[in-house]
Predict the structure.
Amino acid sequence: MARIPAHLRRTQCPRVAGREGSFAALFQLDLPGLFRRGYEDPYLVSCTDGVGTKLKVATLAGIHDTVGIDLVAMSINDALCTGAEPLFFLDYVAMGRDDPPLLESIVRGIANGCVESDCSLVGGETAILPDMYQEGDYDLAGFCVGVVERKRLIDGSHMEAGDVAIGLASSGLHSNGYSLVRKVVFEMGGLACTDTVAELDNRSVADILLTPTRLYARPLRRVLSRYRVKQVVHAISHITGGGIAENLGRVVPDHLQVEIRRDAWEVPGVFRWVQRLGSVEQKEMDRVFNMGIGMVLVVSQHFAASIRSQIADCGIETFDLGVVKPSAPSDERVVLV
Amino acid sequence: MARIPAHLRRTQCPRVAGREGSFAALFQLDLPGLFRRGYEDPYLVSCTDGVGTKLKVATLAGIHDTVGIDLVAMSINDALCTGAEPLFFLDYVAMGRDDPPLLESIVRGIANGCVESDCSLVGGETAILPDMYQEGDYDLAGFCVGVVERKRLIDGSHMEAGDVAIGLASSGLHSNGYSLVRKVVFEMGGLACTDTVAELDNRSVADILLTPTRLYARPLRRVLSRYRVKQVVHAISHITGGGIAENLGRVVPDHLQVEIRRDAWEVPGVFRWVQRLGSVEQKEMDRVFNMGIGMVLVVSQHFAASIRSQIADCGIETFDLGVVKPSAPSDERVVLV
């Protein structure tokens, strides 16, 4: 366990207080002195999530240092949807037997995800439960806390007709739909982790399926810190299970509808490959996967071009997905046309 | 899943904001208007923990509405050790198949624990992982966030010679040592969940082993809110795996030693029963179990009697365990004499 504290420390900002070995982690809400934020009415934002059966692929492939990034991404990308700045993260790792090298790999991934999100890994719990998990199996749960000033909270309520939906490219499958993916790739396709896929640049199946979920903390921090007074970002949606329509729909007010053009972006090869291998219907693909869009921002039309270029500066491709229109409450909140 | 939001709502105080179905939970750090706390330099306190193999006993007995209390207690009792006020809680439930009645039982217990701790259950995640958990099996992880004003942080640093260690009675085994307990009771003792134990008032094995971990939020809130200016509580220790010596030792400064008198309290019958059934050595009992003391407060000698009576008013028995003495760094931080 001696390698774990080192991983925690490399994620931690000066706001982390307290000592190792204490009963609880301590995080100073505001910064001292010069960098004081002076929160007026802070909301604490919290999320929890796991990685699901993507872990089974990791176990099958014997690659354990990327699922931690997925764990961090699943919670932090959710927290970002409120406009929050992620502050700290805790993890719960449950495994069938004490396996320090495995734990170290997992925590290394978690720490990497936290570093990339400017979020401090302040604590965690490792449970050894031999009667509950089979040899080599493990489960992960993550927990993230962020903060947002009340008047800067983003919840879709400022959305209006004429706003633009900007899609941020995903890195691949992210962490949803892995029951389907595993069935299609391993059972129906008869493939193994080490097989390569010609149409996907000869990458191995393991490499394709374990591509870590993209972390959107830095591009969002960049955009949100640019507009401290104006409310230009009206809604943020993390595209997970349920797909674009369901997840974006969660933040669209009853009197509006977002019309997404399918030709606004090219669906990445990995989704076409899964669809063909398993003869999966388009409707199911749309419902289970992100289809290449990991996050959607709904922004004032006037600022859309500038926001897209700020995100591009962070190395993430964006797409002009469509516009917000007036609508009746009985309509769908999101339509793909 | 329709029954879950009702359980969340009955735990939630007015500081819980946001809507159901949003990407993240929102909690207003300060109260508005009249009840404003006006935190000057708040520390966010966070903990995560699980319940361990006590869950296996719940599965064996088919009783699932108390392990949620254990889950809440394991995290919140840790958070309390910093002097924090618990604010909110999130849970992660992973199970082998979708089982709404089972989930409802689990969440009912979690909500009961939150209500009893004046802590809002603001969110959670349910993962259905058929390839990871056997039929009927499940795992739980809990996350708790609290807040403490920096100058009121309790970490043992104010402890001094002459201070008194007050023990707060546990409710029984709490949530540690269940691998040993299960081996002793079910394997060595050959007992079943429905068997009764004559020496423990004819209670059933299930009833004895599933007694929920005691929650100490209310007695601690009572004590800490009484002394808002003076620092009279110098250290708080939650007695979990490692027992009294190891857990209390975590908060004792290097130049002090706490001398605990074994005759200060009577070890409850459940521990004597487990010890005899499994012929467990005293040393192992002391290292694995709380032995009847769930929490230890180290306080100024002058206030000890008053603090004990405040805790007694909350219905929790207390014991005058011993005193703090000067010591060399090379000594044990805690000795049982």
About this structure: The two ends of chain A are 52 Å apart (CA to CA).
